[in-house]
Amino acid sequence: MLVDLCGDYPQVKVLDLLLSQPWQEFTKTDLARSGNVSRSTIYQVVDNLESHDILIPTRKIANTQLYRLNQNSPPVKILMQLVTDLVEGNSLAIKEDEQDPKNPKNDKQTLNQDYHELNGDKLKSSEKQTKELQNESKSGKEITESYQTLLF
């Protein structure tokens, strides 16, 4: 889910895996293989996630360290809520679409109208967001930058 939203970056791939299986323990090799990430990159990603208290070491088997998502960490709670909201939002949108009797699936005129309305709303929303961002306080920018640093 996060990869679709944030991009195909190694840290995002690892976070996506961890958030999808929050109780599962992983080795660095598991994380590297699952995310199709090189071993050298996974060491950097794991170090970064550990330093932000997102990933915690759990136990060792022989010389192999296992890691798990730190569900008590505030950034993890925020990310878990984001993923939950995205999943629930997608499910709700699909259910509403299926139940709407006024939304004929093959009516080209209705689909055309919906497309133009949606794009018009996106344009208005984009202009509004640009104005809001220009008026954003310095502390808001710092928070945004810290979350971007955390994800990438």
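That was protein one. Protein two is written in the same sequence-then-structure order:
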Amino acid sequence: MGMGREAVGTATRPQPSESDGCHDRGVSTFRWVAVVAVAVVAQATAACGSPEPGLPTGRLLISDGANRAAVEVEIAETEEARRTGLMHRTKLDASSGMVFLFDQPTRAGFWMKDTLIPLTIAFWDDQGHVIGVYDMDPCPADPCRLYGPGFPYVGAVEVNRDFFDEARIGSGALVRLERDGA
């Protein structure tokens, strides 16, 4: 986004030029720079709801027997990816989310620091059973609330608020992750 802001700033200052009356090179150059700046800003804005480059992707299948749902996910399985999560995103596409995977069962809490959109998080155990589903509110400043199931878990998924309510799926459901390209 920093590049987009710089390009917009550049586009607002046309360079002085000579004009032949019909074809003002300064205006033409200014229009070209403005078009490029708009394209850069549009691309950066579109990325706000798009997957983070470089993260693995896949589908998380969730079922409780009667109800099923699928979520297109980015997979955060490194410390850095888990720490960043969905911070600074301005939107999350419907039926999209981020899965957080851990090598060992953990009790670590999640927080919403610098996360701009309301989310729901579901945690699952080493058997793939959902052990807790919680709505989370954005937190613009410390201190931020920690969210966790109170039990060891090996994975979690963050989705748009109310996804689980709308899918009528909750604790006890089974999850299965299918990685793209696997």
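The chain has two domains: 2-47, 57-179. Keep this in mind for the problem set.
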